[in-house]
Amino acid sequence: SAEAPATYTFNFGTLTAPTVDPSAGPFTSGVDVTMASSQSGATVRYTTNGSTPTTSSTVYTGPVAIFTSGTVKAKAFHPDYTASAETSRTYELVTATPTFSLTAGTYAAGTAVVVSTSTPGASISYSTDGSAPTPSHPTLANGDAVIVGNSTLKAMAWKAGQTNSGAASAAYSVTGHLTAPG
Known about the structure:
The chain is an all-beta fold. The protein has no helices and 15 strands.
């Protein structure tokens, strides 16, 4: 008889969905996301924009640093198996609440309070009229100072792609007067 060529494809089942850790947040300084497949030889592919991973998505090779809020999705692929189900993790990055170099209290006129946040690249908005600060209030660079007066200093930090921080607040009063240089 004549030879009859044939091509066979083996499918050993469906891959188990990959692990994606950590599983929850919120985080204030970014998060390193790790992924793994339980199947030897499987390739984990992922997205960071919330789309479903495909065979052309980025291959996981080591921890993925996430600095903005969003969704990471991962799937495992292997030529002899059906692709895994998707594992999805949503990470909320929250800008760290500002801190003040001086606690609330009474200080000499002209005293400066340094306002900072531990979130790199964040902006700090502040108010001295008792209102809750928003990104539209005056801003400071991280580590800048405000001269205290008889007022309540409130500050919040914000960074694009992250949830705004909570507000820090401290009431100050001053003694003495500033004199003009003579």
